[in-house]
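Long-time lurker. I teach an intro course on protein structure, and each term I like to show students one example going from raw sequence to a predicted 3D structure in token notation. This year I'd like something fresh instead of my usual example. Would anyone be willing to generate the tokens for the chain below so I can use it in lecture? Attribution to the forum is fine with me.
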Amino acid sequence: MKKYNVLLPIAGKAQRFLDAGYTMPKALILAKDKHVIDWAMESVRLEECNLIFMVRVDHIYNFSIDKILKQKFGEDITIVKVDKVTRGALETCTLAEEHIDNDLPLIIYTPDVYFGPQFDPADISKDADGFLLTFTANSADHSYSDYGEDGIVTNVVEKEVISKEANVGLYHFRTGKMFLKYAREVIDGDMLVKNEFYIAPMYNLMIRDGLKVTAANTEKMHVLGTPHQFEFFVDNVINRFGSRPIALASDHSGFGIKEIAKKVLQQKGFPIIDVGTYTDKACDYADYVTQVTSLINRRDCSHGISFCRSGQGANIAANKVKGIISGLTFDEYTAEYAIKHNCCNHFAVPSKYVDEEKFSKMVDVWLDTTFDGGRHFTRLHKLL
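-- Reply from a regular --
Happy to contribute to a lecture. Here you go:
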């Protein structure tokens, strides 16, 4: 017998995706070689979990989403058909009452996120009545939990920044019965937030009654809830360094290190696109950097690297191009944070400060580093 019930509400209309021209249910939109639901489910360890999917009836008839989910996650999953418009995620979840009105622990997971490291339900403290997974953020688009170093939650608020800990969209309750008890109080009490019933604020009722609610932070977080967030994830996050050819450019001052870099990358097995310059004769870096940025925007390469004496000219030229996030990189630290916090798809490298050994180490860092997302996406969103 499995130890947890996991309720997955994917019955939303996803109007923003429809308005952007997407026709498939959000869960079945492809992100590279996997659907959104596949990326989301990779974030949770599911071996001990009964999976209960809540899906729209029209998505069953038009897209066979029930059959697709069973192909992906097994014939023993439960499909709950939603045939009416609800007043938010909390009310939607109560439609699964017959499957969760029991003493098994309940996890509600809204699967339009991708986070890491992988969450294991067994890691939840055995004495916790409720648990929320959080990530670091500062945008009022999320719900927030307030808790200290002991992990004890004292307040949960929807669409208002009360701490740096935004909720991922993964909610745990000691039992399904406990969830339903407090869900009924919220709905019967008409406790709407912006005309919707949300799950997160329900924990305040549990805290009021002396129950123990805990939380923990996850390191990496990517929200796939809007077309812009989804497209950024596809174009930048899962587009890992070296997943396609690397484009190289330089001016005359960077020509020597570009040739060295080309050798290093080829020795590590990366295909190269060298757009020039091809001699050390004086030239303008902008003419070559813009060729690299064009390759990046056409998805002909995963990343670009441009070399000039200080790196600053190449960096300025790249960052003037829409869709390009360029970082000045000259050691392992700047190489790491160019991706970790800034999701750079172009690196400007100064020939004056980088030699073969240092460049080789930078390449290894780029290979091993992924974008943290969360608050760093919010910052980038202001610039892009």
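Some talking points for your students: Residues 176-188 form the longest helix (13 residues). Residues 246-381 form a domain with the Ribose 5-phosphate Isomerase B; Chain: A, fold (CATH 3.40.1400.10).
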